Amino acid sequence: MKPYQFSNQDLQRTPLTLSGVSKTYADTTVVENLSFSIQPGEILGLLGPNGAGKSTTINMIAGVIPATTGRIEVFGFDSRQEYQKSRRLVGVMHQEPIIEQYLNVEQSLKIHSGYYGVADDPVWRKLIVEQLELGPHLAKRYLKLSGGMRRRFMIAKTLLHKPRLLILDEPTAGVDVELRERLWSFVREINKAGISVLLTTHYLEEAEQMCDRIAFMNMGKLVALEETKKLISRIDKQKLRVELHTALREMPDELKSFDSDLDEEDSHFLNFSLESGAEVVAVVSSLEKIGLEVLNVTLTQPDLEDVFKHLSRESGGIKGVR
Amino acid sequence: MLGSDSQSIKDIYAATPVAYKPLLPFWTLLKKEILRICSVAVQTLLVPVTTVSLYLLVFGVSLGERVSVMEDFSYAQFVVPGLLLMGIIQNTFGNVSSSLFMARYLGYVVDYLVTPLSPMAMSLAYTVAAMVRGLVVGIAILFVSLYFCELPWPALGSAVAMALAVSFLFSQLGIIAAIYCNSFDGLSIFNNFLILPAIYLGGLFYPVSMLPQPWASISKVNPLFYMIEGFRGSALGNSDVGFLVCYLITISFALVLFVWATILLKKRGKLQ
After folding, report:
1. Which of A3, A65, A84 comes nearest B19 by C-beta?
2. How far lies A312's CA from each of A49, A51, A209, A278, A300, in Å?
3. Which sequence spans correspond to the domains of chain B?
4. Using a CB-CB distance cutoff of 8 angstroms, which residues of chain A are in contact with residue B13?
5. Rounded-to-integer distance, Cα B267 and Cα A217, Å
6. Is the ipTM, as predicted for this complex, more than 0.90?
7. Threshold 0.90, pTM exceeds
8. A311 CB contacts (<8 Å, ≥6 apart)?
9. Residue B5 to residue A83, Cβ atoms within 8 A
10. R_g (Cα) of chain B, nearest Å
């Protein structure tokens, strides 16, 4: 069998296209009629609450599970009919560390690109090892690595065959702030080389910083797909956070007419989502009337988390928001 | 640290032609499997050779001189081909079933599912690696057995063909067991309640022709009987059943199991 050489024409096609993709288990539809695409060099964030269907979508794109209906194309290659070519071009980093434990880090890294039909490139491997600071750990087996090192090891494996589309499913889940920053920095460098990225994360501020566009899923459906800034600008409300001297058990009736809630973690705080300056004044005056002693007031612009909550509510509720 | 080599990342990407070598995924999984066998060599090679050597000690030295079941041959000579085949069977089955089951159990089978590795390539890589282990163990047992007795090997080619067919067959059974079982208990049941009884009742320690009816006829329903007879016949030149019949039955079972195993590997959901 002759090696297949991807042409420039192949690689200039749309990195990922989903058309009417659904996944059904028995009577339950987990993903419904999903259609979107990723443009060359783009970082697309796939966000949504737990159970929204993000991981199922990623698993269908990666080939772990087949779609029930619809079509997935990677650089124009059908993910079912031409799965070998399409998977060759994709690198997937899963949420859970899943590394076999019989080989040490170096042995694993040396052979891993071979699974993708790509010969080991020692120069590239060395660069990845250096960038991810895996050098001192090459002789260790997976079980001897710390959590952070396991993440780095997984990222290294994902990149060894030089994928053209990188899929990162919660790459920073459970890692410390320093490592998160390093990993994102590395992803940005990879992206600068023209590699498209599809990522999911629960850290919305990271998605806001990293992603060119956001696809928002809820209950298996695509609820929104827009440029990150445009998506945030959908929410024209301001956020008002009020710190009280005394903790409250429940929201006072006088404040229930506002879009507000009592902070779940600390009931000294009230959060308001307000449309105008006049509403801000009205809230402050209501607080005075009730006789609540205000220690501090913070007014901020909406961020992706507000969009997340707004879209989740709009599209049928939130199963879980971190 | 990060970012300092951004030009290098870009350069390396730009300079590398994007190609796909279709046979490389198979060779890679095979290499990994061989590395796995070597990395736990005590468990995969030394233990099985020691176990069968103990059988040889018991039947070759302790009992062998007092028992005779086949004219012109000692009991040790009678039992060695069966023990050798048992070593091959248990190690091919054990290799595939434990390796694939662990990949499923620990979840790293997903690492293969996202790659271009085809179900056929996956099946063959696991099969070849298991056959290598089974045959290495078989050869080691053969060398150990020389201490106790020598076999005439009048049809060495047939013996090799039978050993290959049997190891192929039990590799397929290993894949099937690894996919169907959801616990280590399940694998253990496969081995202890299916394979071992079939080997023991297939005439490993006695000629089936010695059994009274209906047990002699019932034993002939057991496919292991034909494998052991075929192999023993090739090693000693004396068998109750012709080699061709034994070989065709073995190959037929092997092909059926190969198709079954490959279909299971294609159903990717079964692997998780």
Report:
1. A3
2. 8, 12, 21, 27, 21
3. 24-271
4. 162, 193-195
5. 28
6. no
7. no
8. A216, A218, A223, A224
9. no
10. 22
Quote the pLDDT of residue B1.
Answer: 43
CA distance, residue A92 to nearest chain B CA (Å)? 7
Q: Does A122 touch chain B (CB under 8 A)?
A: no
The Cα–Cα gap between A64 and B110 comes to: 7
How far is the CA of B29 from the CAs of A64, A97, A168, B19, B74, in angstroms?
Answer: 18, 20, 24, 19, 43
- Does the beta carbon of A203 lie under 8 angstroms from any beta carbon of chain B? no
Chain A positions in Cβ-Cβ contact with residue B113 (cut-off 8 Å)? 62-64
Amino acid at A13: R
Give the span between the Cα atoms of A200 and A214, in whole angstroms: 10
Q: What CA–CA distance (Å, rounded) separates B226 from A279?
A: 89
SS (H, E, C) chain A: CCCEECCHHHHCCCCEEEEEEEEEECCEEEEEEEEEEECCCCEEEEECCCCCCHHHHHHHHHCCCCCCEEEEEECCEECCCCHHHHHHCEEEECCCCCCCCCCEHHHHHHHHHHHHCCCCCHHHHHHHHHHCCCHHHCCCEHHHCCHHHHHHHHHHHHHCCCCCEEEEECCCCCCCHHHHHHHHHHHHHHHHCCCEEEEECCCHHHHHHHCCEEEEEECCEEEEEEEHHHHHHCCCCEEEEEEECCCCCCCCHHHCCCCEEECCCCCCEEEEEECCHHHHHHHHHHHHHHCCCEEEEEEECCCHHHHHHHHHHHCCCCCCCC
Q: What is the pLDDT of residues A52-95, one digit of tens each?
A: 899 899 999 998 889 999 999 999 999 999 999 999 999 999 88
User: Taking chain B (272 residues) in consecutive chunks of 10 residues, what is each chunk's mean pLDDT?
Assistant: 58 84 96 92 88 83 72 85 93 95 89 92 96 94 89 93 97 96 89 90 84 83 94 89 94 96 84 75
Contact B22 A115 (CB under 8 A): no
Q: pLDDT value at position A304?
A: 67
Mean pLDDT by 10 residues, chain A (322 residues): 90 95 92 95 90 90 92 95 95 81 90 95 92 92 86 90 93 80 87 92 82 90 87 73 88 85 87 79 85 84 70 60 35
Place of tokens 């709009």: A314
Cβ distance B167 to B84 under 8 Å?
Answer: no
